[in-house]
Every structure is written in C-alpha cells, then in structure tokens.
Amino acid sequence: MGSIFDDVKGEFSKTNNAVVKLILLNLFVFVTVIVLYIIFTFGQYPVYYEWVMEQLRLPADFDAFLHRPWTLLTNFFVHQGPFHIFFNMLSLYWFGQVLEEYLGSRRLVALYLLGGLGGGLLFLALYNTLPYFQGELASTTLVGASGAIFAVILGAATLLPDHTFFVFLIGPVRLKYIAALCIIISMAQLVGPNAGGNVAHIAGAMVGFGFIKSLKKGHDWGTPIYAINDFFRKLFTGKPNVTIPQRARATTTSAARHFTSSSENSAILIPNQDEIDAILDKISKSGYESLTREEKQKLYKASQQ
C-alpha cells in the first residue's frame, strides 16, 4: 500500500502529466465516495451518505444550487458506478494525451475545467427555462465528468481532425468521425432518462470546439484559470512563480503565428521542406507514434501553413 501512495505522490510531483493527475483525482474521489457508502450503509446511516452526495451533485433546481454553488465544480469529479468512471477516464486518457502533446498540461486542465463548468451551466439553464424539464426539476441532479470529457474529445478533434485512433474490430478511425459519432449519440438521447447528462455533453463539446478555434485566433479562454492557479501557487508556496519556457505547441495562422501563454513563450521555427520530408519518411518506416513531441509539433505546424 505504501508503494501505491509513493507512486501517486511521484506522479503529482511531475510536470506535464495533467492527464494522469486528472485521472488520479477522479479515482480518489470515486474511491472516497465508495468507502463512505460502505461505512454509512453498514452503520445504518444512509441519510449521512445522501447528505454527502448532496454536497457534491449539481441540483437542477436553481434555488437549491444557490445554497450549494460549489457543486458547479464538484459534480464533474464525482462518478456513480465503475462503468461510468471507467469509460470517462479511458476517454480522457486517449484524447487528453493528444491535446497535452500539442498544447501542454495547463491548457488541457483549463479545457477540462471549462468543459465541466459549461456542461453544468447549460444543464442549469435548460432545466430552469424549458417547460419540458419542469416536471423533473426537483429530482434531477448532475454528476460525472462527461461534459469535461466531451470538451477534451472535441478539442482534440478540432485541433487534429485527421489524427487516427485504432478502434478494436474497426481499425484506424479519424478523430473527427469519432467526435461526430459522440455528438450524434448525445443529441439522440437529449430526450430520455439521462437528458441532463447529454445536455452537459453537448455543452462540453461546444466548449472544446470554441476553445481550440479561439486559440487558433490568438485568444486563450484558459487565461483566468491560469491566473487563479498562479495565485494559489504563490499563496501556498510563498515563492515567486518561476516559469521555464517550453516549446510552443503549434502554429496556426499568419495572424496567430504560435500558441503562447505566460508559461509557454518560445516557438518552434517553421520547418523547411527537408525536415518535413524526413519526418514523413520516418512515419512511413516506423509509424506516427515513433515521432518525438517536437517532430509532431513541426508536422502540425507545416499542415497549417
């Protein structure tokens, strides 16, 4: 058990591994909820467990939300059931790695949080304005990271639409088709028992798409989140926040020559044709996954010229 805690501690001490940290955080909350459920069930105090869950789930009723505003954040770190968290974390691992490779950990975390918040806000808005949802207002709550995950999926698909994943029994499938299928399935289930969850999916997808499109134009939606993170880091460490310049993640248009932020302020030069030919030769011999991070960034940069 000690080695597990050491491994987890080691992961959180690393940089540029936001995917792993987000997965571990979700797993920690999931295990904690399970332990509390077992304790309160065996102790015959289920009302205490229900009280805990009320502090974590986002209520559809706006008046109830005003009494528990923090649930707008906590709801997308809570999962009920092993399959719920398994598929969400598997998706985060697959698609999050793509985004982290090109945009870095800070932007991945920002997109995850914005997607979850966007899902919760649209959930609240629709349930409190559309007559269709009024009958379920008092009994409906929102939990799960699906809105945040959809933001990551659509973000990856918008950034690299032709990037392929190997799907079991199907073969290589482009990201844009996976994202399109996810949206179609969620839209088809907007009327049904999990309408609220699918509302969050659609909202997260819109956030993911808008985040990347805006970033390509030189506007970073994650700036407020970076500022909050830096504030708390300075508050708890008491030291100045020294940042190490990292390689820029991608080039997009002539108007926005490279993605930058306060902690990512150096750029990879535009690759010449010889470099691109060498990278393409490497792909033909060893596959796309054999490329280094810098080679992937150069290839993406060239594709945007």
Automatic annotation (TrEMBL):
Regions crossing the membrane: 22-43, 76-96, 108-130, 142-161, 173-192
Organism superkingdom: Bacteria
Record-annotated Peptidase S54 rhomboid domain positions: 68-211
GO biological process: proteolysis
Domain DUF6576 residue range list: 272-304
Membrane topology: Multi-pass membrane protein
Protein name: Rhomboid family intramembrane serine protease
Species of provenance: Runella salmonicolor
